[in-house]
Write a structure and sequence with these properties.
It is found in: Nucleus. The protein is mainly beta. The chain has strands spanning about 5-10, 15-20, 30-35, 45-50, 65-75, 80-85, 90-95, 100-105, 110-115, 130-135, 140-145, 150, 160, 170-175, 180-185, 190-195, 205, 215-220, 225-230, 235-240, 250-255, 260-265, 270-275, 280-285, 335, 345-350, 355-360, 365-370. The chain has a single domain, classed as 7 Propeller (Methylamine Dehydrogenase, Chain H), CATH 2.130.10.10.
């Protein structure tokens, strides 16, 4: 095993893993995460702890080994899972349902607090709900039926539905701004939607010319909302600047099979992580050409100043993300394999602070509490 990685075998295929958010004011590392399963006879949503409190003192349990806190049966495969806040988790089901579970910290139990059955559907059948993004109290879901649905937690109805948003499956969704979302679909398109507009048309469409390779995942740069990363069926990692035309800024051969998830590190976005059907989990790091550490080049979390953007001392430094610094960046991208050996498909990953968690079809959860960020 690679140093710092704990593997937990859980006798179910894990489709999704997410850290519970930690309050931004505290410097603590995350210690609770949730998982969802798929392709099992009975699927579940589970809460795990890597906190020291969870250790039962048995000799064969390592410090930091994930301990099951509680679980709840889940109708259908868990196709997406997001924390709405510290207590609530939203799941997307293959049955088309959108479900909010509440984690009761006192009793360490989970219960269903809200359920929208068949939110996604065809005329005569359920349509899997494929993706969720939350900006509490708002929840946006997308599905195989090409619908985009806007919910509000604690409201029973649906706030808004964009019918026929897509003629193909929408695989993933992210917020660009509080009123704008970006979706990716099975014919290689990115579409931007503005909820302030009444119609059912996207405000912008971007795509890989002529390829029509299905895109499975998208993530937005935490500081620079115009930068997004996508991954698709061909295993390519694409970085896009949605302000610039409708082509990706850069394409990188990342994986040898479908890329299932891509995530920028939420507080240090020069680091990015991707996972794939090929059994690999990659850590991408952009580094500047100069020896000056990036924190001296533009303050905390502000990425790296490109050569052309460095102003004379005392002048205004215009900050350019290190993901958009042109051809020279190819030499500055380091990739590291994060898992000890090729496993079955790595379906999901999440990273917060120095902690990384991922889930696999090999019925294992891997946790690394010392990610070099």
């Amino acid at each position: 095993m690679m140093e710092g990685i704990n593997a937990k075998y859980v006798s179910q295929k894990i489709s999704k893993t997410r850290w519970r958010p930690v309050s931004s004011s505290s410097l603590q590392q995350p210690d609770i995460f949730a998982t969802g399963s798929w392709d099992n006879e009975n699927n579940k949503i589970s809460i795990w702890s890597i906190g020291e409190n969870g250790i039962s003192g048995l000799d064969d349990e390592f410090e930091g080994d994930p301990q099951l806190v509680c679980e709840h049966k889940h109708n259908g495969d868990v196709l997406d899972l997001q924390f709405l806040d510290q207590d609530r988790i939203v799941t997307a089901s293959s049955t088309g349902a959108v479900i909010i579970f509440r984690h009761h910290h006192n009793s360490q139990t989970l219960s269903v607090s809200q359920l929208w059955e068949r939110a996604h559907h065809y005329p005569c059948d359920n349509a899997p709900c494929t993706g969720i993004v939350c900006n509490s109290p708002e929840i946006v879901t997308v599905g195989e039926d090409g619908r985009i649905i806007l919910f509000r937690a604690d409201q029973e109805g649906v706030l808004r539905t964009i019918e026929n948003a897509d003629s193909s499956t929408i695989h993933d969704v992210t917020f660009l701004r509080t009123t704008e979302i970006l979706t990716v679909n099975s014919i290689g398109q990115l579409k931007i939607w503005d909820f302030r507009q009444q119609g059912n048309e996207p405000s912008q469409i971007l795509s890989l010319t002529g390829d029509r390779v299905p895109l499975h995942c998208v993530d937005r740069h935490p500081n620079q909302q115009h930068i997004v990363a996508t991954g698709g069926q061909d295993g390519m990692l694409c970085i896009w600047d949605v302000r610039q035309g409708n082509m990706p800024f850069s394409l990188m051969e990342a994986h040898s099979a479908e890329m299932w998830e891509v995530h920028f590190h939420p507080s240090n976005p020069d680091h990015l992580f991707s996972c794939s059907e090929d059994g690999s989990l990659l850590h991408w790091e952009t580094s500047s050409n100069s020896d000056t550490p990036s924190f001296l080049q533009g303050g905390r979390n502000t990425s790296i100043v490109s050569r052309s953007a460095i102003a004379p001392a005392g002048g205004n430094q215009s900050l350019i993300s290190s993901w958009l610094t042109g051809d020279s960046s190819k030499g500055r991208l380091e990739t590291t394999h994060m898992l000890p050996s090729q496993t079955l498909s790595v379906n999901s990953l999440d990273v917060l602070g120095q902690c990384l968690v991922c889930g696999t079809d090999g019925e294992a959860i891997y946790v690394n509490k010392r990610v070099p960020i």
